[in-house]
Amino acid sequence: MDWALAIQNLISPPVLFFALGLVAALARSDLSIPEAIAKALSLYLMLAIGFKGGVAASDNGLTVDLLLVIGAAGVLSASIPILAFWLLRATTQVSQIDAAAIAAHYGSISIVTFIAGTAALDAAGIAFPGIMVAAAAAMEAPAIAIALFLAHRGQAGTPQTPKAPWREVALNGSIVLLIGAFVIGMVTGQKGYGDIEPFIAHPFKGVLCLFLLDMGLVAGRELRQVRKTLTPSLLAFGLYMPPIAGMIGGVTGALIGLPDGGIALLAILAGSASYIAVPAAMRLALPQAKPALYLTLSLAITFPFNLTIGIPFYIALAGWLS
Questions:
Q1: Do residues 273 and 105 touch, judged by C-beta distance below 8 A?
Q2: 184 exposed, middle or buried (CB, 10 Å; 0-12, 13-18, 19+)?
Q3: Which residues are CB-contacts of 33 (< 8 A; sequence separation ≥ 6)?
Q4: Is 226 within 8 Å of 296 (Cβ atoms)?
Q5: Exposed site from 157, 158, 221, 248, fewest CB < 10 Å?
C-alpha cells in the first residue's frame, strides 16, 4: 500500500470531519445536522458527481467501453452477495434471512464512498473515466435480486418469495438524480459544465465535509445501540469483506482494460456497502431481517474502514494491477 497516500487520506478534511462526528456521537454530544439539511447535502453530492461524470463521458458517447463497464458492474453486483452469504453462513451464527440481507448490502454500493474515492484520486492526480458513474448505477438491483433468492433457497414450505421492490430501487432518489445528472452532463457537455462550474466544482469538498460529519454522527449512534449484538465474527466480516470484494473488483477492472483510475473506482465500488438504497429495499422485501445487523455493519463498520484504509488500498491495488 502507498502509505503516504493512506496518511494523506486519513488526515484529509472529509475523513477528519467524519471522525469528529463519530467521536461526538460516541461521547453523546448534542451536535447534530438537521435532517432537511443532510438530505440537501446528499442531493448536491449526487448532482455534482453525476453531472461531472456525464460531462467526462460526453466526448466519447455510447461506446463499447461503457457497455463493458456496465456489464462488469452488474456481474460484480450479482456475484459478490453469493460470496458474502457463504462467508457469513460459514463464520457467523446469523440466520439465513439475515445473512442474505447483509449480503445484499455488500453486493450493492455506497455512493458516498464512491465520491470520497473520486476525491482521493483527484488529490493523488490520478485521472479516471467518467463512465464509472454508470457502474455505480448498475450495482443496485442485481444484489437485491440475488439476496432474495439466497434468503429462501432450500426452505421447504416457504411462502412465495417476495418480489424485489423494483420500483423503489429504480426510482430511489439517489439513483434517479445520479443517472439523471449523468445524462444531462452528457447532453450539455463542456458548455453546460462551464455554465454551472462555480456551483458544482468549488463548493464540492466543503459540502462533502458537512455530509461526512453527519454520517459520522449517524454511525456513532448506531454503534452505541448495537454493541451487544455485534459479535466478533460479524465485526470481522465487516472488516475483511471490503478488501476481498475490492480485489475482485480491481481484477475485473484490469481484465476489461480500464486505466488506473477506473480500476481503482471499480475496486472501491465493489468493496463498499450500501446503507441507503438496499436498507430501504430490505425493509420491504425481507422484513424479517434485522436492520440493527445489516445497517450497523455497512454504515458503522465498513464505511469508516473504507474511508480510512480501504480507499488507499484500492488505489494502490490499481497501480499493482495496471
A1: yes
A2: middle
A3: 41, 210, 213, 214, 217
A4: yes
A5: 157
Quickly list H helices, 155-310.
166-170, 173-200, 204-225, 232-255, 260-271, 277-285, 291-295, 303-305
| Higher local confidence (pLDDT), 34 or 322 | 34
| Cβ-based burial of 22 (10 A; exposed 0-12, middle 13-18, buried ≥19) | buried
Q: What angle do CA 173, 197, 310 make, to 5 degrees?
A: 60
- CB count, 10 Å around CB of 90? 9
The three cell numbers of residue 270 are: 465493489
Distance of alpha carbon 277 from alpha carbon 110, whole angstroms? 9
Q: What is the pLDDT of residues 117-152, one digit of tens each?
A: 998 898 888 998 888 888 887 887 788 888 888 887
What is the phi/psi pair of residue 97, to 5°?
-65, -45
Measured distance CA(311)–CA(293) in Å, rounded: 24
The reported pTM is 0.77
| Integer CA distances (angstroms), 120 to 198, 261, 264, 307, 309, in order | 21, 10, 10, 10, 12
Bigger pLDDT: 64 vs 225:
64
- pLDDT tens-digit readout, 68-113: 998 999 999 999 999 999 999 999 989 999 999 999 999 998 888 9
The DSSP code for 159 is P
Indicate the residue type of 73: A
Distance CA 311, CA 322 (A): 17
> What is the 8-class DSSP label of residue 61?
-
